[in-house]
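REQUEST ID: PR-0412
SUBMITTED BY: lab tech R.K.
PRIORITY: routine
TASK: structure prediction, single protein chain
INPUT:
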Amino acid sequence: MKKKGLLKKGSSVALVATLIGSQLLATVPVNVLAAENSAEKNSVDALPYYSTTVSTWAELKGALSNALVTDIYLDADITIGETTDVAATMKNIHGNGYTLNADFKQLKLTTDNAVGLMEDLKIINTTIYGLFWGDAANLQVTYKNVDHNGRQMIYLPKGELIIEGTVTSNSTAEEVFQGKQLTIKDNANVSFVSSATARTISPISFLYDNGGLYVGKNANLKVRSTAATIYGGTNSTIISYGNIDLKSEKFQAIHLASKGAMYFQPGSVLKAVAGDTTEESVQANDGSIFVEAGATFEVEGNGAQGAVIMGNTFKLAQGSNFSITNFNPNGSALGTYTTPANVIMKSGQGVSTWDRGTVTNPTPTATYPGLLNAQFTLSGYLNSVKQTDLTSNNGLFNSAYNTGKTGKIVGGSFASKAISQTTINKLDTDATLATGIAEPKADVVLKAGTTVIGQGKAGDDGKYSITIPKQAAGTSVTATATWNAQVSNATTVVQKGTADQDVARNAVDALFTDTSKTDIKSITDQTAIDAAQALVNKVQDPTAKADLQKDLDKAQSLLNAKNEQAKQDTANKAVKELFTNNNPASNAIKDTTNQKAIDDAQKTIDALAPGSVKTELQADLDKAQSLLDARNKQAADDQAQKAVANYAVNQLFVNNTPASDAIKASTDQDAIDNAQAEIDKIKDPALKVDLQKDLDRAQELLDQRNATASQLEKAKQDAARKAVNELFNNNTPTSNAIKSTTTQATIDAAQKLIDAVTDPIIKKALQEDLNKAQSLLDAKNEAAAAEKARQDAARKVVDELFNNNTPASNAVKPTTNQAAIDAAQALVDKVTDSTKKAELQKDLDKAKALIASKGTLKIDDFVLGTTSITGSYSGDVDRITLSKDGVESGNATKTNGTFKFYVGPGIKKDQSLYMVAYDKNGREIAREKVNFAVVTAGQITPKAMTIPGDSNISGTYTGDVSRIEVTITNEAGISTVYKGGTVANGTFKFYSFDKTKSPKDIIVVRAYDSVGKLLDTKTVTITNNIVTTSGNVTPAAMTIPGDASLTGTVSGDAATLKVTVNGTVYAGGSIASDGTFKFYTLDKIKKVDDNVTIAVYDKVGKLLDSKKVTIQAPTK
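STATUS: complete
OUTPUT:
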């Protein structure tokens, strides 16, 4: 029974206990017995217990840890969270049918003499120790009504497991029970299955000496395993008053070590089966086995050793029932190990024996009937086992019994069982198989007279089935069963066959739902009845045939009635589906109902037999026809009006077609209103849709034309002004300078745009600015021509300095001298185009070099902050000077091919530095640029952020910043480093929406140069920015019909609009910068009594205001 709350017994006080979180906390005791009845007061000597109900692991752990709680009731399935030691002296878990998932954790009892209980519980996923296991002394654990599945059910090396009720275990790794004592209480039902494969990992294992198994009255123990089913150490004891069923697939059923003993008490049953092909099935080593009167002892072995082995005493008491079988042809039934054994064998029903290798024969090798009292000594465990000192009350047994040759021996009820009565089932002339029941495993012979017509063996269930040839009617067939030298017969007379009747009967019966034959099956149709009729026609017996025909006629009648009902159902469905809601009483037909649907329904009515059903359906169909005729007439009228309205609408558009998406110049509001009046005359709303859509489009185009007429001239003026402005620097004529891209073509294009302007004042101003541009272009073109002449003159003189008049020859003419070069230099200096001048100067410098001395310079990279430029030189260098920002000054100190030039501390990175070498004639023979050694620097300035709110970490940077790195530390102190983001054009940005959620996060940004050098580190400032938005809407009154749009004003943070018309919500409209709004509603608001509201929302969708719109009719 499930317990609720805190229970108390046997004490004048109860401990008030509260389960808080995962810990059971106890408070001060309080007196709670003032109102208890006398029965409760009389129980003061009972052991007090305290209980709690748990539904989570935290609660269960708290209850297990609390020394005062004795009983724990589960209120849900629970998974154990961790291995837990239980120090209490008593702890009972009542499962209430729930599951306790060990999750491969343990509950361990740690106190000597502790008592535990697992009740009404399913236990899964245990380790090889189980739940409530322990190695403390004298533990006593009870499992009652437990279903277990795990690696092992329980391990109690020094304790006792008590089983009550029904307990099952499927142990997947090791033993089911491994401990000192296993006690199975009266009436308990126990089933153990183990998957372990090693011989000694037995489902029931007594780990140390003096262990044992006790099975109570009417208790049942069933064990299945690959290992030996029961394995015990020295002095192990088995005592049974109940039923034990053991089976090992590969090893022994019971193995007890030295001095073990087994006691099978009156009323007990042992069935032990062993698959071991070498060892015994049941062994007490040098111990004893006692089978008392009323006990049943049945053992089966497959080993080369004796099936039952003992070493002290083997007693089969008078009144006991025993059967010992060794299926191995080399193994005997009995044997001893380590010491000879005294065998006492008594049977009031005699004893039967089978020689080795014949144990499966139904007849024993020898039978010793009547009362048998025998006693002898055994020595040996193989088939060479010998008996000595044999004495018995049966002289034949004294002279013939040989233990070494005996593979099976039975006594008691196993020897006295009489053969079962043989039966043979009815045979007819069509039979080819004889069946019946005989003694299980008996040999069965079938004879027709004296002729054997078949033979076989009865199965374990006694049933036999033997093939025979067909026999003539009237033949007597006898079945004879032989077992254990006993014979039993049965005879039947072959009857004439009824195969034709049976086939027909099966076919007819299959038409009906049951034997009452009051209804046919849903699958029965005319084809099935016709097939059955064909079989009935073949029946020869007239009486049987008449009975079959009578049943078949009944089936035909039921099918006819069923078919007529189906026709009525079909007709009824067809008629109803013509009407709205499938109900003729609605007096309205569906939109989908047409003449074909009515004609099809008429056909289903015509197929009915005359009667009231047919009459009523015809009346409903006639109603549908009348409604369809009326609808068709209205549809024809609407089609005619649609043609009129269609013509009126088409006349509004260019080429008389809405597809042109352009209205005629003659289309005005009166024309549109007249077309609307024609559309309104159509009754069918569906016919109006396309027409109304086209008319609404015409209205939109007319509104656009009216609205854009004044805008066209403005657009022409803007285009002309833009074209004129773009001719000038900074797009402004007041700059008095045209762009380098300004050409005659761009001026002509601007002139065309000015010509399109109609406003004379605007046009004049534009023309004045264009004329200015034309004047500037003319002046520019004249200057360009003069520059071209200077360039051509300089080019000619420079080219003539070289062989073949081409600098590409890389050789000057013999006539080229310094005077010629100076003259060329004078012409190059007059060129103003910097690009052309540079090209000319380059070629001229080449000529200078060709007539000058030779020399080279190699400059070391200059480090900012130092004061000297150094390097090396070679060739005809006479002196070296510095050109700083185009100004030469000073001379370097030269020493053995190296030089040093003192520049002082003022050099800046953005300055242009060249070292220039001259020969002794003062000619420049080398010029090299001074490169700066790379020294990176930079800073970042992150913007403040609002979180939540901002999606990016951003800011600006200076210097050599190439990439950034972001570190975010959350409230728990966990830091995460992110790389990425974009760094360009003096700004950086890093997407952080999914990485930072709290204003308490700490965000640090680090800046690096291109080679990973850290340049700067900054922390981002975070502010909580809670934005409060508000706003209002004021709609203008509307005139319907008339107004095509809803207008009004908004204020505050209003960003979007929604209009609701008769419950339908429309989003859209536009809000201008001056706070006015417009929402097109021509296709949405149709009547004066429409219910219209307008609502405004901020940019994140928050509702700010909602107002009802006033709708008024037009004034007359």
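NOTES: Confidence is low (pLDDT under 50) at residues 1-47.
REVIEWED BY: pending
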